[in-house]
Input
Amino acid sequence: MRCSLVTSGFCVLVLVSCVSQTGLAPGDVLGKAATASRNLQSVNFNGNGTLQIGKENQKADIQIQAQGSLQDEGKQTQLLVTLGGTFTDKKQDYAVHGNAEIIVAGPDEIYLNVHSLETTPAHPLLNQQMIKNLGGQWWKLPAGTKKSASISPDPSLLRAQSEVVKVSKNYGIEKIDGTDAYHYDVLIDKDKLLAFLQKTAQEKGELFETEKARQMIGGFDAKGSVWVDASTFFLHKIMWSVAPVSPATDSYAFTLELNFTGHNAAAAISPPAKFNIMSPNIPLQTPVSSR
Output
């Protein structure tokens, strides 16, 4: 079984004068939010998502809950993920439940704790011995393991919420968690998204395949809502719904809802006090503790 959590999307913040800004146009608000995201040092987040796949022999209906925080402009992350649902593989139906925690303390400090992961009935590709040995313990992944971009909403993804969208409906200012916030319905601007991805790849020194990215972006539609603090321009909440442009050839649906709190005030992230060293053979061995 190959799981891919697609994830995609988010927005953010900045401090401005205390003068009333209720008259700001949506473009100005999103521009301030994009600028502010570059100064985001830390934030807490929590939310949920769904993934549905409707192909004849490959169906899935998965619910995901997540909570965590990021520090140091996204260089450090702590994330707890719980998933549950059903999927079909080779005409066999399965129920799946799992719970895992991830800590990214630095470029070569990535830790994983699989609290639980099981399918009913047992899936042939899910090694029960591996799960038994991994379960309930912290593991440090090998140096060089890359942090997935989907682990958490780092500031570049948060900034994308402001830089690659166009407003389809303006609700003005509403109360959210007792705070005034600008509320907009938004759509993905595909040309801006392509330019943003290309620029981000260049900043990271990564290869960017423009035509491949253009085809991928052209294959889906995305619509959502954002709530931006009317005073600080911090992002309070985002909601996204993603679906294929051609349901006849691609049948999937993805939804995401995330709430953000504790902007620039999230608790520090530290490596686990005790962990084991992960190696290719570890799942079939007795764990070797390093602390």
Remarks:
- The chain has one domain: 26-284.
- The domain at 26-284 is CATH 2.50.20 (outer membrane lipoprotein receptor (LolB), chain A).
